[in-house]
Structure formats: C-alpha cells, structure tokens
Specification:
Layout (H helix, E strand, L loop, with lengths): L11 H13 L2 E6 L1 H4 L8 E6 L4 H6 L9 H17 L2 E3 L10 H7 L3 E3 L5 E3 L8 E7 L30 E2 L3 E2 L1 H8 L5 H6 L2 H5 L10 H11 L3
Antiparallel strand pairs: 1-2, 2-6, 3-6, 4-5, 7-8
Length: 226
C-alpha cells in the first residue's frame, strides 16, 4: 500500500512541501524522481504533483480569482507560483500551452495514477475525479513517499465502463467526444452538466475526492459551454 504521511522514509523537504500544499487547499497527488523514472522533459531532482480534493473549492471561492474568467487556472498560477518561489522550486502547469508540460507521463510515472478501463486516468485516492493543478520541480533529489500500489482497477467490476448513458466513455472505443457533446445538449444530459460526468463519478474511489457538485458543474461548463 501507499505509505502513510508519517513514514520515516520521507524527508524534511517533503514535509515542508506537504505542509505548504495543505495550507493552500491542495493535496500531493504523486511524487517521483525523474532520474530513475525517466520522466519526460526532466532529468534530475524531485517532482511533486499537486491537485485538488475537498478543501480546494471553498478556498477558490474566497480567492480574488473567483471574480473573472478562468478562475481555476489563474488561482493555480498564483498560488503554486508563490509556493515554488517560497520553497525554491520551479512551477509547472498542465495548461497555458502549447507546448504543454507532460503531466500524463508524470502522473503515470508517479506510481499513483493508472489508465482506467475507459482510458481516462484513475488515481489511487481520488479515483477518476483527477484535477492536477500544477507541479513543483526541485533541483535536488530528496526522499519522497514511495508509491507501492497496484492499479485500483485490477479487482474492480469497472462501473465506469457502463455508466455513460450514450457510451461516450466505454471499454471498447474509449472517448467519443462528439457523442459526449451531443448528449450534453439534451435534457437528459443536464444531469452530467450539473453534477459531473457519470462515468467518472461511477469509479468507487471518486467519492474520496469529496468534490462539491458545484466544482464539477464548473468544469463541465468549461468543457461544454452553453
């Protein structure tokens, strides 16, 4: 299993990042050493991936970025940028391209994120409600929590594969974007628009993300503007 955050195998550097991450309303979603994992675009040091869980949405709604366009990305840029400056790291973000930072490669090589039966990524604690907001790259290599989990999908009956009413996310053709958009234009599709993707919500681990339905609705409207 993934080691607890009280493991003696961690380092003071990791502990400082964890504290700063929680203070910001984020969670550490993975960590890796580029040298041993052959992570794309990086060669040395330590990379820590940051994402959202239940604490994030209330923090964002109280932030100045809440007023205006793209509040999530603007908040992430400011907050993670400040964390990088304070902690002595370089900030990377999954938005702002092209070119884009290879977050999918980094996520998979962290050992805590895997490909689900429908192709979308699944995380070992927040399921398919993944939202990477940035990453911190440190030039030095320090001890991190080592991921030891196998994919959570191995013994799962894969409710994600059958949850989509129109089969846009499925175990055979993976993501049919056009079918998804067409469904979201219908009355039946408003369930997804207001509560989030049914396939992603069907993942048994997604409940651990403790996501406010308002956050899911925000992301859905960004994906499918009315």
């Amino acid at each position: 299993m993934y080691q607890s955050d009280t493991s003696s195998d961690t380092s003071p550097e990791f502990a400082r990042v964890k504290q700063a991450t929680e203070t910001a309303g984020l969670i550490i979603m993975g960590a890796l050493h580029p040298r041993s994992t052959e992570a794309k675009q990086l060669e040395t040091g330590t990379l820590i991936l940051l994402g959202t869980a239940g604490a994030f949405w209330p923090v964002l709604k109280q932030a100045p970025e809440w007023q205006g366009s793209d509040p999530v990305d603007r908040w992430s840029t400011r907050v993670i940028g400040q964390m990088a400056q304070t902690l002595g790291a370089e900030a990377h973000f999954p938005f702002g391209g092209p070119p884009y930072a290879p977050f999918i490669d980094w996520a998979l090589k962290s050992g805590r994120t895997f490909s689900s039966p429908v192709g979308a990524l699944v995380h070992d604690t927040v399921g398919m409600l993944i939202s990477y907001r940035g990453a911190l790259h440190f030039s030095e290599e320090f001890a991190i929590l080592e991921a030891r989990n196998a994919s959570p999908c191995i013994n799962c009956p894969a409710p994600c594969a059958t949850a989509c009413p129109v089969g846009a996310l499925n175990a055979h053709s993976f993501y049919d974007v056009a079918a998804c958009h067409d469904h979201l234009n219908t009355e039946e599709g408003q369930t997804c628009m207001t509560g989030g993707c049914l396939a992603r919500l069907a993942c048994p681990l997604s409940a651990e993300a403790k996501r406010d339905p308002e956050q899911s609705a925000h992301h859905m409207h960004a994906f499918h503007p009315s």
